[in-house]
Amino acid sequence: MYFLGIDVGTGGTRALLLDESGSIAGAATEEHAPFASPEIGWAEQDPEDWWRAAGVAVRRALAGARIGGEAVGCVGFSGQMHGAVMLDAADAVVRPALIWCDVRTEAQCRAFTERVGAERLIRLTCNPALPNFTLTKFLWVREREPDNWKRVRSVMLPKDYVRFRLTGERAIDVADASGTLLLDVAARAWSREVLDAAEMDIALLPRLYESQAVCGRVNAAGELASGLKAGTPVVAGAGDQAAGAIGMGIVAPGAVSATIGTSGVVFAATDRPALDARGRLHTFCHAVPARWHVMGVTQAAGLSLRWFRDRFGAGPDDARDPYERLTEEAARVPVGADGLVWAPYLMGERTPHLDPNARGALVGLTASHTRGHVVRAILEGVAFSLKDTFTLFAEMGIPVHKIRLGGGGARSALWRQIQADVYGHEVETVAAEEGAAYGAAILAGVGAGRWHSVDAACAEIVHVESVIAPHPEAVALLGEQYRAYRRLYPALSQVFGGQSPLSP
After folding, report:
1. Strands 154-156 and 254-260
2. Could you report how far apart the first and last alpha carbons of the chain are, in Å?
3. Can the peptide bond before residue 352 be classed as cis, meaning omega within 30 degrees of 0?
4. Which of 457, 430, 495 is nearest to 212 (CA)?
5. Active-site residues: which are they?
6. Hey, what CATH class is 2-248+437-465 in?
7. For the chain (length 504 residues), average pLDDT per consecutive 10?
8. DSSP letters along 269-297, please?
9. By C-alpha distance, which of 394, 402, 398 is closest to 420?
10. Domain boundaries, the chain
11. Domain 249-432+471-504 bears CATH identifier 1.10.150.170
């Protein structure tokens, strides 16, 4: 028997097959069309393209594993969080989905916060109203596109749309639902008070499940599109952050992951809904029953390095990966980049500033700085932005016993060492760092009964591959640099007029 994880990401959909020993039997990724950005701060994708990509990726993964769809015992889902998918009475997509990095809804955030009250909203949902969250996107469509909103009969998140097409069931897990601003996170149930304040009918929302619970089965249309056998059970899965954490074994208090993808996330498992009264961290349900997680988000983590590569190049092509060339140059630069500091606010910022209007900056340039200095400053600046979350964890008394690295940032030896030095803590990598699709497949295995719990699955199949110790001299130098970095945002906000949606 095999277990399939499907991750509906921003850039593409990945399908991954685990066998009963937890080994990867096959995997494939199909890219999505680039997201559209009709105006600054807007980001939209066509849900139909996710469904197309899912079918292609699943068929390729099955072919790579040399198995048929009948060999798959269960399917799990993961995907980009916060996206707003809206369907009409015929289950057709009403308009392109507003995805996670769309921040057009600042006015709706302010208005809704004023209506409910900032403290009360955090008490109800464990989170403030941010432009990334799904509810604010629905409110924008209702206000700005009333004709479209009149057609809406059901709403869901990105991965849940793909599962809907596969099974015909409208479902969502509590972990992904936590990022909608519609969930009572502590109670793991839709918040009637928030729905009433938003004047939204609960009938629009999908049914809630725990992540490992079976919520549907592949139907005939799903079989035709994917090659999976009709009747195959499908579990609810989780948003990409919770699923990725499962894949890295971040399931119990004291375990923390630092993942650098397009965005950057520091994620801590907790046994209670730990709350930051100022809403600087997100408190969500975990993909493990009776567990929660707290996470801080950097909007432009890996995106910072990609932005530099795309805009300014990576030097002469020598047939190597451009990122390898860039990080090689950065490795020749001293720790601290000779005083150069990068503030990674290319897409506004979430943690700890809650400011969609924050702007990036490269500070401290001199004529002696090289491209390698700039790249090293970017690598260090992204790590500083993630350290902000560790600083908040310390304030809140959230334990940090082990830190595991994930995402593209974990594939760079230099970035791994920079993170160890910036955090001042030993960091680990795991043997099969396959991201959210791996976690989704683990949840499918639990749903099928191969493992009796998520904890048991992670204990058996998630293994540490390497441990990176911090260098004491670098820790001291980067500690000084981090203090300089912390002074950048207040100065930049005076220049660019940045302001949190929670500000009066």
Report:
1. unpaired
2. 56
3. yes
4. 457
5. 240
6. alpha beta
7. 96 96 96 91 96 98 97 98 97 97 93 96 93 96 98 98 98 98 97 98 98 98 98 97 94 95 92 87 95 94 94 91 95 98 92 89 97 98 98 94 92 96 97 88 98 96 96 98 96 76 44
8. EESS----TT--SEEEE-SSTT-EEEEEE
9. 402
10. 2-248+437-465, 249-432+471-504
11. no
The radius of gyration computed from the CA coordinates of the chain, to the nearest angstrom, equals 22
Residue 356 φ/ψ, nearest 5 degrees: -70, -15
Q: Are 333 and 370 in contact (CB under 8 A)?
A: yes
Comparing CA positions, the residue from 441, 486, 479 lying closest to residue 462 is: 441
Q: Look-up: residue for tokens 């994930």? A: 406
Q: Is the dihedral of CA 408, 414, 415, 420 positive or negative?
A: positive
Q: Do the domains at 2-248+437-465 and 249-432+471-504 have one common CATH topology?
A: yes
**Do residues 271 and 290 touch, judged by C-beta distance below 8 A?**
yes
Helix (H) or strand (E) holding 319: none
| CA pair distance 427, 417, nearest whole angstrom | 9
Structure tokens at 404: 């595991």
